[in-house]
Design a protein that fits this description.
single chain; 187 residues; alpha+beta; six-stranded antiparallel sheet; 6 strands; globular
Length: 187
């Protein structure tokens, strides 16, 4: 699951200093210890340049292009380790401490044994304008901060197009529908 997230993330890394940007420096110490690492830092101009390669005539690519139209950037840190125990869930504390402000809201948290997945939303003046994903286990960690993401469906559409990721709705446990599609009915 974590590997698939990395594919979706390359388009969402921010270099701008906006209010919802999270400082990921606490993860930098793990880069030298990782057998595989991915670090992405894209500001708004880089995101726009990458989006220009998407084809408006292809339905899926057009949805992805629309989904990133308001994106201001994203930061990504993804590290995979040879040995278990190099990274511990407690190492997320500096990141989680940054989310204690009134503009951040947790809407998904799953913790099982040594695995943790969290999705947080940032709001400014009541409008969603950012998202943070944390997916960690003892052998790997992925943290993605999308600045300017305006809806969960945009985030889900991007993940579906780029990495085949289905982001579950926090209400129904079903995937969030892509813009312009009807929700799936499993009955």
């Amino acid at each position: 699951m974590i590997r698939k997230l990395m594919v979706a993330v390359w388009m969402m890394i921010a270099g701008t200093c906006l209010a919802q940007q999270i400082d990921l420096k606490s993860l930098d110490k793990f880069a030298a210890l990782a057998k595989n690492k991915t670090e992405i830092n894209m500001d708004e101009s880089m995101v726009k340049a990458a989006a220009s390669f998407l084809d408006d005539k292809d339905k899926d690519e057009a949805v992805a292009k629309k989904s990133v139209s308001q994106l201001k950037g994203i930061f990504l840190r993804a590290y995979e380790f040879n040995e278990k125990g190099i990274f511990k869930l407690e190492d997320l504390k500096p990141l989680l401490d940054q989310l204690k402000g009134p503009n951040w809201t947790s809407f998904l948290r799953v913790q099982e044994s040594n695995e943790q997945v969290e999705i947080w939303m940032h709001r400014t003046n009541g409008q969603m304008d950012g998202m943070l994903l944390i997916a960690a286990e003892s052998g790997e960690v992925v943290v993605m901060n999308a600045v300017g993401v305006a809806s969960l469906s945009d985030f889900a559409a991007l993940g579906e197009k780029l990495g085949g990721i289905e982001i579950p709705s926090p209400v129904s446990n079903q995937p969030v529908p892509k813009p312009g599609t009807a929700p799936k009915n499993d009955d």
